[in-house]
Amino acid sequence: MDDLRSKCDDGVAGLMLTNPNTLGLFDPNIAEITRLVREVGGILYYDGANLNAIMGISRPGDMGFDIVHYNLHKSFTQPHGGGGPGAGPIAVSDRIEPYLPRPQIVRHESSNGSGPSFDLERSAEKSIGRMRGFQGNFGVFVRSYAYIRSLGGDGLQEASETAVLNANYLLAKLSAGRAGKHLPLAFGERCMHEFVLTGDPARRELKVKTLDIAKRLLDYGFHPPTIYFPLLVDEALMFEPTETETRESLDELAEAIDSILAEAEEDPEILTQAPYTTPVRRLDEAAASRKPVVRQPL
To answer: Domains of the chain (ranges plus CATH)?
Structure first.
């Protein structure tokens, strides 16, 4: 906070962040953060990557944000990953609305009881004007909108509460086993919808890296968690179980990680040579990055 205060001056255009953050921690200073930026005329931009933790519980607008983008590959039932299609609708506060691109769809209420009508507003004094015709993958919006309407406010809140419960349940299960010693929580004591472990003790004590643990998880039938992100955590493993995981599946994952760490205690090479059961073994990712093959041979 002291560092932020020292940087808040007339040269600040805005601040972008997400809350809870990538570590799964809700920042208790959020109101003070947004106040400091607003006082110097800055705009607050909210990365909606972690909305899955706060739906129906906390609103970015109430935190003081002006702009929010929704990551529909992380919330509102859009598939996560797989190359798309994706979409990122953006919501703004009254402070930002006059600057939105045009044309803009506007709603007009009827005076004769026939229902509302819709029109295109093409000009506005402060608008940045027309940007481009493409408005995103419409089918993605329809799917997410249908999901939101079918769950309703109470259902969305329950989804967030379940996601947070699942993450803390998995964290407690892992902390009670070998992971509590070899893969401790990087920051904090509890989490929101996700948490990040550090594999630094495992690297030093067991001579296995986070990558080795992730590759061995493939042999146990699990898609590995995100690894080596965020960069501020050494040997990071990020777990985000979401609201759809069952308690049984979380128990199985915790047991698999405990078994893998037991293998590492006995013979680290079991992990360093994994995976064994996949169609291809461990790939040379550095070579693939430097010399990518982007065409399928005829």
So the answer is: 99-135 (no CATH), 152-286 (3.90.1150.10)
